[in-house]
Specification:
Elements: E1 4-7, H1 16-24, E2 28-31, H2 37-43, E3 49-52, H3 60-64, E4 71-74, H4 84-90, E5 93-95, H5 102-117, H6 120-128, H7 131-134, H8 136-143, E6 153-157, H9 161-171, E7 177-181, H10 187-191, E8 195-197, H11 200-206, E9 209-212, H12 226-230, E10 237-240, H13 249-258, E11 263-266, E12 286-288, H14 297-316, H15 328-338
Parallel strand pairs: 1-2, 1-3, 3-4, 4-5, 6-7, 6-9, 7-8, 9-10, 10-11, 11-12
């Protein structure tokens, strides 16, 4: 039996690492750059596996139009761009590559916090324009704005693997305490990382710095809105290296421009790429990077390998690197019992492997 894998990433072509993993397993693989649902549906006709990025979203309409599909494989660690409910109902696995960039994202969030508290970009710009020798008052003004992390309260929204990695890093800078909000993590686990769990309002009110490391869900959508920012200290710094939809961008803009918070750093936006005319780009106290927090040579290489391996594993009954909808295994069993299905001749998927 021959199988077909289609890759529809919009932002860049797949790595040769991914393509070689699939080809070496004897599978047909095709890359078609797609920007819309209709383009994905056309490109993926007859596909057994669809490998996707964050855009375009893999909606119910896309999934229902692909009767042979067994798996949607997301690059990276998220699955928020895929309709999980529809995929599960149709008996389609949704996979990702967890754990590949935990260090990178935690490093990036830490780097953003340090860059903002130590005014690195501003000082660089001032010195390159001759301010140190010609306009020393500008340098003195920046000197008076420098801050320390030691003795402060650091807040973490989402204490998963990346939130924990950030807690480990920031502890070395000597904060008085680290607090976090995550209803799915017990205090006994937080204790291992020197973190005190608190409710959301306490996180907002007590933190000098807040960093976000949570998935985008219905519960977390726009959870950081103008009301949330108004509950934060006016001296607070806000960092988001997680997902754009967690933040109401109009609320963030208002909070920064009116002084509800002093500064922010974000690596993600609600719509990506960010439009060149976005008002966010005109806010002086907002630092932005282009969704690169998880990027490094190591994470790119490992992610590309695992992305391709999931396409092979799902068709050969081997343990997947990450399954975003584990309940699909029961649904596949039901579909098999009801008669012919997309899974005919394919072993049942094995839920997860971390190596």
């Amino acid at each position: 039996m021959s199988f077909k894998v289609v890759i529809t990433m919009n932002n860049r072509p797949p790595s040769e690492i991914t393509l070689n993993v699939i080809r070496d397993a004897g599978l047909e693989v095709e890359y078609v750059k797609c920007a819309t649902e209709n383009e994905v549906i056309t490109a993926a006709q007859g596909a057994d596996v669809l490998l996707v990025g964050t855009v375009p979203h893999t909606t119910r309409r896309v999934l229902e139009a692909l009767p042979n599909l067994k798996m949607v494989g997301r690059s990276g660690v998220g699955v928020d761009s895929v309709d999980l409910d529809a995929a599960t109902e149709l008996g389609i696995c949704v996979t990702n590559t967890p754990g590949i960039n935990t260090s990178e994202v935690a490093d990036h969030a830490m780097a953003m916090l340090l860059s903002i508290t130590r005014k690195i970009p501003e000082q660089t710009a001032a010195l390159k324009s001759g301010a140190w020798s010609d306009r020393p008052q500008e340098v003195e003004k920046l000197r008076g704005q420098l801050r320390r992390i030691a003795g402060t309260t650091v807040g973490i929204f989402g204490l998963g693997s990346i939130g924990k990695a950030f807690a480990i890093r920031v502890r070395g800078f000597g904060p008085e305490k680290i607090i976090a909000h995550d209803p799915y993590v017990p205090q006994t686990t937080a204790d291992l990382f020197g973190v005190q769990l608190v409710d959301f309002d306490t996180l907002l009110a007590e933190s000098d710095f807040i960093t976000v490391h949570s998935p985008a869900t219905v519960e977390t959508n726009h959870i950081f809105n103008i009301d949330a920012f108004r509950k934060m200290k006016s001296s607070a710094i806000f960092i988001n290296c997680a997902r754009g939809p967690l933040v109401d961008e109009a609320g963030l803009q208002e909070a920064l421009e009116t002084g509800e918070i002093i500064a922010a750093g974000i690596d993600v936006t609600e719509v990506e790429p960010l439009d060149a005319e976005s008002p966010l780009l005109k806010i002086d106290n907002l630092t932005i990077s282009p969704h690169v927090a998880g990027t490094s040579e190591v994470s790119g290489r490992e992610g590309a390998r695992r992305w391709g391996e999931n396409a092979v594993k799902v068709l050969t009954g081997k343990a997947l690197h990450g399954l975003g909808n584990p309940e699909v295994v029961k649904r596949i069993a039901v579909l098999r019992a009801q008669g012919p299905s997309r899974w005919d001749g394919i072993p049942d998927p094995v839920t997860v492997a971390w190596s």
